[in-house]
Write a structure and sequence with these properties.
The protein is of the alpha/beta class. It has one domain (about 1-165): Ribonuclease H-like superfamily/Ribonuclease H (Nucleotidyltransferase, domain 5, 2-Layer Sandwich). It is built from nine helices and five strands. The chain has helices at about 50-55, 60-65, 70-80, 90-105, 115-125, 130-140, 150-165, 170-185, 205-215; strands at about 1-10, 20-30, 35-40, 85-90, 115. The protein has a five-stranded mixed beta sheet with strand order 3-2-1-4-5, sandwiched between helices. Helix 6 (about 130-140) packs across helix 7. The relative contact order is 0.13.
């Protein structure tokens, strides 16, 4: 199962009012485990950067001036995410900007399934703060590098938060073991190790006789007869 953890940075809060994307960060998960593959790009918003937005992510007009326009990277972005599920913190915000940019570039809107980790966190922790920083603190995830918002770094952190929200690291360990087993295939598994000698019988003679008598009352069709391996001594 492939999932894409995604985050964006923008020039403001409203794509409908002319704000634009300036950064996209994506992290690939296979069976809830990060693979090390990611997609990251800065884009030229073709407009000025408001001071309020600059204070959030630190991306200036000068820095973004020579970056590609979204239309120039749209193909690579769509190819990377494919049709797999997107994991996004406050999904309506990011999806609104992504679809606005895709439409502006003459491309179809994203039709991927989306898991909004804000909604997921609210279900799991009703009444608690569900910002990314608050969730990191709750789960003991190190976010000390997050002095400014950054799409790729936030995606990497969100991947860890998402894993905790769906059940913690044990989920990833179990799925990894299943994947490894499936990769090996039943034909390549090593043979089961056998004991050099059977374990000694721990039942007393009286207990063994009582058990045999009980099974004898069940008749010849008793299932226990398939597993009855104890030889009862007769005096």
């Amino acid at each position: 199962m492939r999932e894409i953890v995604l985050d964006t940075e923008t020039t403001g809060l409203s794509a409908a009012n002319g704000d634009r994307l300036v950064e996209i960060g994506c992290v690939e998960l296979i069976n809830h485990v990060p693979t090390g593959r990611h997609y990251h790009v800065y884009t030229n918003p073709e407009r000025d950067m408001p001071e309020e937005a600059f204070r959030v992510h630190g991306l200036s007009d000068e820095f973004l001036r020579d970056k590609p326009k979204f239309a120039e990277v749209a193909h690579d972005f769509v190819e990377f995410v494919g049709d797999d599920t997107l994991i996004i913190h406050n999904a309506p915000f990011d999806m609104g900007f992504l679809n606005a940019e895709l439409e502006r570039a003459g491309r179809p809107r994203l039709a991927n399934d989306v898991i909004d980790t804000v909604m997921l966190a609210r279900k799991i922790h009703p009444g608690a703060r569900v910002s990314l920083d608050a969730l990191c603190k709750h789960y003991g995830i190190d976010n000390s590098r997050r002095t400014l918002h950054g799409a790729l770094l936030d995606s990497e952190i969100l991947a860890e938060v998402y894993l905790e929200l769906i059940g913690g690291r044990q989920v990833a360990l179990a799925l990894s073991a299943d994947a490894e087993s499936a990769t090996r295939g039943s034909g390549s598994r090593p043979p089961a190790r056998q004991r050099p000698a059977p374990l000694p019988v721990r039942l007393t003679l009286e207990e063994r006789r009582a058990h045999a008598a009980f099974i004898g009352q069940m008749g010849e069709s008793a299932v226990w007869l398939k597993y009855q391996t104890l030889e009862i001594e007769v005096e």
